[in-house]
Specification:
8 strands; globular; 3-stranded antiparallel β-sheet; mainly alpha; NB-ARC; 5-stranded parallel β-sheet
């Protein structure tokens, strides 16, 4: 960022900042706060060059905080520039930079954190997870300046050491205009009109810059520009001013900015309609991170390039460097919405925008993940607006947005989007309409991922019933809904029903699909998972080894389906006593790869960490298991509901690991919570409910609370007698522990008296297969 040759004035604010940061040894952090467009960045840049010139012992750094991505990118650039060693093992550039600035070797330094406007982005980590503020150093040798529009951010970041950037003086505003104009004589030839223009613009630096850009491009006089401003209908200006204040919560100085931008918008509309169409479209989406590929194309690529160039020439758009992603200032964006509204086109432009975004929005195939992540903020912004509520494409877009959100592990948002789609299609389409059934299927899948298993089953049973009536036995949609219903049955503890359904699906797909077809492999995977849950571990391993082998041939290393089948195979290995093989598969493939490619709170990543912790526990690595499960439980506590099956399973397994680590009281506390929630939400004979009751009973015994253990175990044994065959290992293990508890009450010395040999074997089975230890995959 070179020095700004057009910078003028602001000496009072600069002097205050110099005194705060470099004369007062007690102050290490200050904030510069003011309205967007007031010139905060340029003041900070001026101060940075002053430090570079006047404080040769200081290093100077600059980090934009527009988003987490820009923050991390800047940290990475600085780390690379400083050649900071990665030997610490921490590859997060934010952590590396923070640690470096905290070190004596960093010396004295000055850091500008620019555009720190998002309070949640900076401070979201308080007590729960890290915000950007947690990656900033507070070393004695450092000085930090935040620029922000938010007084809340300023106060939280710098306490009382806040400098407010107010309206520029008329003299400085005149100097800025003169420096910004190509024809500088215009300022001297018409001084009265210049002052009138600056008064109309309220001496706001951004408005002055925009006005100068307009004057330079169109080569009109200051008087002509002033005439355009004053020629705007009064009611339009009044309405725009009110809406501007309402939407931004700022008063006074914003009115003229909006007026200036509206005049420019009208000029563009008259002379470059393609650029005006782009402005109208952008008014419906997010102002930041706009992919060029999302913009509606003009009649030719050249016309599109020219339209974008016009918006960039007015500084309404700025390129991130490659001309593929653009940003619009949020105040400019707000002005575009006001401009569209004043022309009475809000509904029309909203409909056009939704139809276009629906056309270009990708499906949820894994290969499209980078594209949908670029488009997602813009689609969500459009869908949050109330306009265009009754067009079909809005709900078609909801469908794909929801499915892609689910793929990214954003389950709650996925449910909300898919509910919107399902409600509309249920109202508008007949029962057998393919799109209505597809939305019901997708919503059920999201419900299952969100722990709403009963709601998922209700929806899927209806979908399966209708599709059986209207579709052939081997139709992909019919098989897909049967597969999904089987998955929900398994989640609900109805394992036999799941197996029956999946064996049918696998048999049909085996006749009509190729060996490496994704649907066939997915169904085999699901059947193997059900076999494992039913204790048919060898059958599960045989199927999964086949699925893993085929997917290794046809899918990339980081493809979710390949990782999922490796995860499931590791689980089956563990259930079969092949613990080392399970750990190797999880450590060196699944967990390692997911750590690189999916977010920390993605369900698949958490599930794999859970599974690895379970394998550690089976291998006697109890402390490693506790550490990993504590992380999983903490993250799930932030992102999923209290009664979500995965969260409860993780708490259950953490409790068992804590018990083995000697933390019996903590184990009891966790298990009592799990049992209480499951008794409220699961059927009496649900395997997970029985498993947590069993685990709590054993933990009570470890704590000497034998009577409480007996009460729980008697209930478990009674229910399992109605569910399983006489020689089922699940019944044997429960009877073993109950006999052991009775023996303790009778004060029998020999604790192995009842089922000694059998008990020793089946206790291990419980810890590895849906008893005390539970899977979440």
């Amino acid at each position: 960022m070179p020095p700004n040759p057009r910078f003028v004035g602001r000496e009072a604010e600069l002097d205050t900042l110099r005194q705060l940061l470099f004369d007062d040894e007690k102050v290490r952090t200050a904030a510069l706060v003011g309205l967007g467009g007031m010139g905060k960045t340029q003041v900070a840049l001026q101060l940075a060059y002053w430090v570079k010139k006047s404080k040769p012992g200081y290093s100077v750094f600059w980090i934009p905080a527009l988003s987490e991505a820009t923050f991390e990118q800047a940290c990475g650039d600085i780390v690379k520039k400083l050649a900071i060693s990665l030997s610490s093992g921490d590859k997060d550039p934010k952590c590396l930079l923070r640690d470096y600035l905290n070190s004596p070797g960093a010396g004295n330094w000055f850091l500008v954190v620019d555009n720190a406007d998002d309070h949640d982005l900076l401070f979201k980590g308080t007590g729960k997870s890290e915000g950007l503020i947690d990656y900033l150093s507070e070393s004695e040798g450092g000085r930090t300046l935040f620029t922000t529009r938010s007084r809340i951010v300023a106060g939280d970041a710098a306490n009382s050491d806040v400098v407010e950037l107010k309206r520029m003086s008329p003299q400085d505003a005149t100097s800025q205009l003169e420096k910004s104009l190509i024809r500088k004589e215009a300022v001297h030839n018409s001084p009265d009109q210049v002052q009138e223009l600056l008064n109309e613009l309220e001496c706001l630096p951004l408005a002055i810059t925009q006005a100068a850009a307009y004057l330079n491009k169109n080569q009109i006089s200051v008087a002509d520009y002033l005439g355009l401003l004053r020629g705007t209908p009064r009611d339009m200006v009044s309405l725009m001013s009110r809406e501007f204040r309402d939407k931004t919560r700022y008063k006074g100085t914003q009115n003229a900015v909006a007026t200036t931008w509206l005049v420019s918008f009208e000029q563009i509309r008259k002379f470059e309609s393609a650029a005006a169409d782009l402005l109208a479209f952008i008014s419906r989406i997010q102002p930041k991170g706009i992919p060029r590929s999302l913009l509606p194309p003009c009649e030719s690529e050249e016309e599109t390039t020219n339209a974008i160039g016009t918006l960039c020439a007015y500084s309404f758009l700025s390129s991130r460097g490659d001309n593929e992603v653009f940003d619009m200032h949020s105040l400019v964006h707000m002005a575009t919405r006001i401009w569209v509204e004043q022309r009475g086109l809000t509904e029309e432009e909203a409909e056009k925008a939704i139809r276009h975004v629906y056309e270009v929005f990708p499906n949820d195939d894994h290969e499209n993940r980078f594209l949908w992540r670029e488009y997602m903020p813009h689609a969500l912004k459009m869908l949050q607006d109330p306009e265009a509520e009754n067009i079909e494409e809005r709900y078609d877009l909801y469908h794909w947005v929801g499915r892609c959100l689910k793929q990214d592990g954003r389950i709650k948002e996925a449910v909300q989007a898919l509910e919107q789609c399902h409600r509309w299609r249920s109202r508008e389409y007949p029962e057998e309409h393919p799109d209505r059934l597809a939305s019901k299927h997708a919503l059920a899948s999201a419900y299952e991922s969100n722990g709403q298993v009963k709601e998922a089953i209700d929806l899927l049973e209806h979908v399966v019933e209708v599709r059986k009536r209207v579709l052939a036995e081997d139709h992909p949609s019919r098989l897909s809904s049967q597969h999904e219903l089987a998955s929900a049955y398994q989640s609900n503890g109805q394992v036999k029903e799941a197996i029956d359904l999946l064996e049918h699906v696998v048999e049909v797909e085996g006749r009509v699909l190729d060996e490496d077809h994704p649907s066939r492999l997915s169904s085999q995977h699901a059947l193997a998972s059900a076999y494992e849950s039913n204790g048919q571990v060898k059958e599960a391993i045989d199927l999964l080894e086949h699925v893993v082998e085929v997917r290794k041939r046809v899918l990339a290393e980081d493809h979710p389906s390949r990782l999922s089948s490796q995860h499931e195979l590791a689980s089956a290995y563990q259930s079969n006593g092949q613990v080392k093989e399970a750990i190797d598969l999880l450590e060196h493939h699944v967990v390692e790869v997911e750590g690189r490619v999916v977010a920390e709170d993605h369900p698949s990543r958490l599930s794999s960490q859970h599974e690895l912790a379970s394998a550690y526990q089976s291998n006697g690595q109890v402390k490693e298991a506790v550490d990993l499960l504590e992380h999983v439980v903490e993250v799930e506590g932030r992102v999923v509901a209290e009664d979500h099956p995965h969260r409860l399973a993780s708490q259950n397994n953490l409790a068992v690991a804590c018990r083995e680590d000697g933390q019996v009281e903590r184990a009891i506390q966790l298990l009592e919570h799990v049992v209480e929630v499951r008794e409220r939400t699961l059927a009496e004979n649900h395997p997970n409910r029985l498993g947590s009751q069993h685990a709590l009973a054993v933990t009570y015994m470890k704590d000497g609370q034998v009577e409480r253990a007996i009460k729980l175990l008697e209930k478990v044994v009674e229910i399992e007698a109605q569910m399983y065959d006489e020689d089922d290992s699940r019944r044997e293990v429960s009877r073993y522990w109950l006999e052991k508890a009775y023996a303790l009450v009778r004060e029998e010395a020999d604790e192995e008296a009842s089922l000694g040999e059998v008990g020793s074997e089946v206790e291990g089975w419980w810890s590895g297969n849906n008893g005390e230890g539970e899977t979440t995959n």
